[in-house]
Write a structure and sequence with these properties.
The chain is mainly beta. It is about 15% helix and about 45% strand. The longest helix has 15 residues, at about 1-15. It has one domain: Beta Barrel (Lipocalin), CATH 2.40.128. The chain is globular, with a radius of gyration of 19 Å. It contains one helix and eight strands; from the N terminus they run H-E-E-E-E-E-E-E-E. Strands 1-2-3-4-5-6-7-8 form an eight-stranded antiparallel β-barrel.
């Protein structure tokens, strides 16, 4: 009986120590740093809403966002026919992240990435 109790406690302790692999939510404005400094801006308004805009343009796209361990999923916020898109995503530090290029490119081309900083 003692062995079962210890095994149960051990299992619970292992489960409770499981590493959280999800990316935390972001807040605030992040500016593109690379490859084109200042071209794009991502404004994380809440734990699930981001606005993408470009310098010199009054047009902006609003997306709902969520994370998987290695990707960000962007879903247009307006009721449209556009499906969700997944982009590679890596948090570099508290103030910057790397994301797969948000601009359309030739599918056969190698992936390229953008760096955003707060």
């Amino acid at each position: 009986m003692k062995k079962i109790l210890w095994a149960g406690l051990f299992a619970i302790s292992i489960i409770s120590c499981k590493k959280n692999t999800s990316t935390t939510s972001f807040d605030g404005i992040y500016l593109e740093n690379s490859p084109v400094n200042g071209r794009s801006q991502l404004n994380f308004l809440s734990s699930s809403l981001v606005v993408k805009s470009e310098q010199g343009s009054s047009y902006a796209d609003t997306f709902k966002y969520s994370f998987t361990p290695t990707k960000i999923i962007l879903t247009p916020n307006l009721m449209t026919q556009h499906p969700s898109q997944e982009f590679d995503f890596e948090k570099l530090d508290e103030n910057s992240f790397k994301i797969q290029n948000l601009y359309q490119s030739i599918p056969e081309s190698p992936k390229s990435y953008m760096i955003f900083k707060k």
